[in-house]
Amino acid sequence: MAELEPAALHNETEAAGNGTGKLGSSLEGAALAYGSLLAMALLPIFFGAMRSVNCARGKNSSDMPETITSRDAARFPIIASCTLFGLYIFFKKMQLLSSFPSRKYAQDLLESHRSCGLQTSIFSQEYINLLLSMYFFILGVLALAHTISPAMNRILPANLPNKQYQLLFTQGSGESKEDILNYEFDTRDLICLAMSTVVGVWYILKKHWIANNLFGLAFALNGVELLHLNNVSTGCILLGGLFVYDIFWVFGTNVMVTVAKSFEAPIKLVFPQDLLEKGLEANNFAMLGLGDIVIPGIFIALLLRFDISLKKNSHTYFYTSFVAYVFGLALTIFVMHTFKHAQPALLYLVPVCIGFPMFVALLKGELTEMFSYESSAELLPHTPRLSHFPVVSGSPASLAESMQQKSCSPRRRRHLNPSSM
């Protein structure tokens, strides 16, 4: 699966030709939509950051987070740009074939491509989106089950029979035998999976925006919790690179908007601006890409772990960066609504999320400590490192990747942890 880009905050109903968007049916409806997007963006950042602390302290090797190094951070904008442009070319080709006035003409064109030795896709855009829907159905169920697992463990009665299960796949034999998958779960995990599957079926059948948001929130929370920057310098490299990436692909081209509108997957949060008029059947959506939540979110989570490492019983840098994120996203919404044009949210989020906490550190004389802090030093020596950068705007492909990590020793887990987004 291709890397998922940090999409810009924009109106999903904007015209593809000029990028301008329709206003909601009423000013109250637009305010409700933007306020809801802001609230939904804050939830995975706050709770994901809190859970990232427990994740870093965990003694279970299978629950260790993925650590992003400076090399990963530097490569990611380049990789993301290539995959984004590849998706754009694919969707434009599908739109071109579907726009031919004659099916026979389209077939003749395909035959001429084959006669010239050119490869053509046998799948239409609808088939591709169907395959993607099934893919995200599986990953979404796993991610949502992991998200609700702690809450369900507190809700379910303590006397509930809790049997243990194990999925074990190995390769080789004898001394060369290696675990491909050694996955242990229990009855409580199965209950979480069953509940998440209901949401997944709802999403597959209806593509309802509430089901989309449930999966999107789960992806974002998993990403903030399980993707860890190793230090502040790496965070600055990652955010700085994606700052340029977001501006170029939103303001310089129509690539970002085209892909975001063509890609039917829960990689964005949406909320209808005409909810007050049409209720749950509303269809005039404002949207926020998961990358605009996860990318700043993992930096904010890093600052929370830095706060804790100072052992001053305060979360100064976490709250500073959290307030900065609220300010930056609110500014994005204001500019978008004022100019009626898609906005690269990272244009506003990156300067404030980096600048505010650094200014506070400068005033407190802790700037050197901030840049010398190493989050990875808190983790066990066998913490997995990235061999390639995982999907981040909701990082779903790493859910499947985490289940394929090889380990020479059996791994045990208490709770369902399907992903390392």
Tell me what the structure shows.
With 421 residues, this protein is mostly helical. The protein has one domain (10-96, 118-156, 163-402). Helices cover 60% and strands 8% of the residues. The chain contains 14 helices and seven strands. It has helices at residues 27-57, 70-98, 103-115, 125-155, 187-206, 209-226, 232-252, 255-262, 275-278, 291-310, 316-339, 345-364, 367-372, 397-402; strands at 10-11, 66-68, 164-171, 178-186, 227-229, 268-272, 285-289. It has a three-stranded antiparallel sheet. A two-stranded parallel ribbon has the order 2-5. A two-stranded antiparallel ribbon has the order 3-4. β3 and β4 (178-186) form a beta hairpin. α1 (27-57) packs antiparallel against α11, α4 (125-155) packs antiparallel against α5 and α5 packs across α6 (209-226). The radius of gyration is 22 Å and the shape is globular. The two termini are 13 Å apart.
Sum up the structure in keywords.
7 strands, mainly alpha, 421 residues, single chain, disordered N terminus, three-stranded antiparallel β-sheet
SSE inventory with pairings:
Elements: E1 10-11, H1 27-57, E2 66-68, H2 70-98, H3 103-115, H4 125-155, E3 164-171, E4 178-186, H5 187-206, H6 209-226, E5 227-229, H7 232-252, H8 255-262, E6 268-272, H9 275-278, E7 285-289, H10 291-310, H11 316-339, H12 345-364, H13 367-372, H14 397-402
Helix pairs in contact: 1-6, 1-10, 1-11, 2-7, 2-8, 4-5, 4-6, 5-6, 6-10, 7-10, 7-12, 10-11, 10-12, 11-12
